[in-house]
């Protein structure tokens, strides 16, 4: 497998065929907001894909800020990923229990943001895998530490100052991946904010619109392109994605990647940051 070039997605068939590969590392990235009364690590302990270890985005995060699961430093990322048994050269496959929307897509993006592209997401995730009655296990996985190095790739990440500057320049199209209620300000967001609505001039493409509801896999490329076209997104221009806290926006970034837009950036702080800042404007439904 070491010479095989993978895209950003792998199928359940492919993963089952390669489960025994020595350089394959599978990460269960399931995460839930506390309001759900669910816990990704507990679900992992209950049942997980063979050989997988749990990747906690709240642990592999910047602990110096109160904002949720912000990117850590490159050194901290490398250290914590190494402790999960990942080494440079490994093929990483990430999955979760919500079609990429409960952090698998974010972990895919995190690796890329730290200069590592040999990472793919399991299309359809845990749900598709179990619906197909493929093997899972309960026994904990205690990997030997790996040797991983990371180098921050700022082109794939946007910070608050850059997002504010874009209000004037309009150089980057902003795609908000939240549901329509949160986008138009009629619903509260998951994280505490001082304002409701969305970043002015952004467009709304709920991340779930990119996923087939039956299989949990991404919709076909033609339909995927159609979703962006219908929202007025020009795939030949720069795009930055945003959401509530930088998770589901990564599903959208992955969708763009599948269409060949490999340079789409993610606003790491997303609405959890923008909605708290004193000097950020918010647009909402009339």
TrEMBL record:
Domain of life: Bacteria
Keywords: Pyruvate, Repeat, Transferase
SUPFAM superfamilies noted in UniProt: Rhodanese/Cell cycle control phosphatase (SSF52821)
Coiled coil: none
Any one GO MF annotation of this record: thiosulfate-cyanide sulfurtransferase activity
Pfam family, one: Rhodanese
Domain Rhodanese: 20-138, 173-283
Protein name in UniProt: Sulfurtransferase
Organism of derivation: Methylocapsa palsarum
């Amino acid at each position: 497998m070491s010479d095989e070039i993978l895209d950003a997605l792998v199928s359940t068939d492919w993963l089952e065929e390669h489960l025994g590969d020595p350089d394959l590392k599978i990460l269960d990235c399931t995460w839930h907001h506390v309001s759900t009364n669910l816990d990704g690590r507990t679900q992992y302990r209950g049942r997980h894909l063979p050989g997988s270890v749990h990747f906690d985005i709240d642990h592999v995060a910047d602990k110096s800020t109160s904002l949720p699961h912000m990117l850590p430093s490159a050194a901290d990322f490398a250290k914590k990923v190494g402790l999960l048994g990942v080494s440079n050269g490994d093929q990483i496959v990430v999955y979760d229990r919500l079609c990429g929307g409960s952090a698998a897509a974010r972990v895919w993006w995190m690796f890329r943001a730290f200069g590592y592209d040999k990472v793919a997401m399991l299309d359809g995730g845990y749900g598709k895998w179990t619906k197909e009655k493929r093997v899972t296990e309960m026994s904990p996985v205690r990997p030997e530490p790996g040797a991983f190095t990371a180098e921050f790739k700022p082109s794939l990440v946007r910070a608050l100052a850059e997002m504010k500057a874009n209000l004037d320049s309009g150089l980057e199209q902003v795609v908000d991946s939240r549901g329509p209620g949160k986008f138009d300000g009629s619903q509260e967001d998951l994280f505490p904010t001082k304002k409701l609505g969305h970043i002015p001039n952004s467009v709304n493409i709920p991340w779930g619109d990119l996923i087939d509801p039956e299989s949990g896999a991404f919709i076909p490329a033609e339909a995927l392109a159609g979703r962006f076209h219908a929202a007025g997104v020009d795939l030949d221009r720069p795009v930055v994605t945003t959401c509530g806290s930088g998770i589901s926006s990564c599903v959208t970034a992955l969708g763009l990647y599948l269409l060949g837009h490999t340079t789409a950036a993610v606003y790491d702080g997303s609405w959890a940051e923008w909605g708290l800042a004193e000097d950020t404007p918010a647009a909402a439904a009339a």
